[in-house]
TrEMBL record:
The keyword Membrane applies. This is Aliphatic sulfonate ABC transporter substrate-binding protein. Belongs to the bacterial solute-binding protein SsuA/TauA family. It comes from the Bacteria. It comes from Streptomyces edwardsiae. InterPro entries: ABC_SsuA_sub-bd (IPR010067), NrtA/CpmA_ABC-bd_dom (IPR044527). Its main location: membrane.
Amino acid sequence: MPATTALRRTLAVMAALPLLTLAACGYGSQAEDDDSAKVAAGAKKIDGLDSVRIGYFGNLTHGTALVGHQKGLFQKELGATRAKYAVFNAGPSEIEALNSGSIDIGFIGPSPSVNGYTKSGGKNLRIISGSASGGVSLVVNPDRIKSLKDVKGKRIATPQLGNTQDVAFLNWVAEQGWKVDAQSGKGDVTVVRSDNKVTPDAFKAGSVDGAWVPEPTAAKLVAQGGKVLLDEATLWPDEKFVITNIIVRQQFLKDHPKAVEAVLKASVEANRWINANPDEAKAVANKQLEADSGKALPAEVLDPAWKSIRFIDDPLAATLDSQAEHAVKAGLLEQPDLDGIYDLTLLNKVLKAAGEPAVDDAGLGVK
């Protein structure tokens, strides 16, 4: 990476996006702190903390957090320090919660991670682990789009201007030789920024011809008659790319390394259990989704969505660097300096203790 580069502007739209309605933690909705009842007798607080506040999305791509919450794994590792949770719908609001100190640790996608790091001049967050890869597809109306070349001239939804899937789709469009203005979404393809909660209705109504979206939205579209035209994993080396990271406030990492290590132990254990028990794991994740949102996913959505996600501890740092470059090419991001965005020291300590190989930061770790 180059020496420190002046960041003239980051994802401008991210800075302008409104936060979620204020809720219990200040930015996201508060999940039930039911793990607090499972504190073992005689357990002690870690680093003298009363609680550790953990943020995640109500998405299957955040399955590590869903399973870790539902099974009480975070609480188990934190002892008498209570695990508290906040559920978010968008990356910008979770980054704001982290920046304000409303949460301590969060599960989040690569684009918000890059944006949050660069906006603070590299002073506020660190990526401390991976969590998941994959789980993103281009799903289309098969009556309107029968091949990849048919995407030209059509209306394709992405979740949000400048978000991880939006950047990926814009990069794919550019690789086809097509032109699209990133800000307006107008060009050889019309990019429609649509919240994942709204996209299935828009697809059903015919106002969009397809969508480049994460799970479970992709599976919901398939259940409505859509067809997976492209799995984003096929565009990446070894079909792996980061979709979910674990981030932490730098000050919290400095002041409470034992608490951070405890959360990472729980995350590694959650992923190990998920991979050893995939059918039970998807049911557990779905149970937590129901607890958080009041509605579980039906089997026709849950089953294919879960199969498309790989739960891994490796943050796949090289792919995050590539995703940042894609945002630069799209004109959404000035060349960022990502040196120091990772600190995988505690993760590799946990992996070593578990008999697992160390993971790499692609040269973007703290020096």
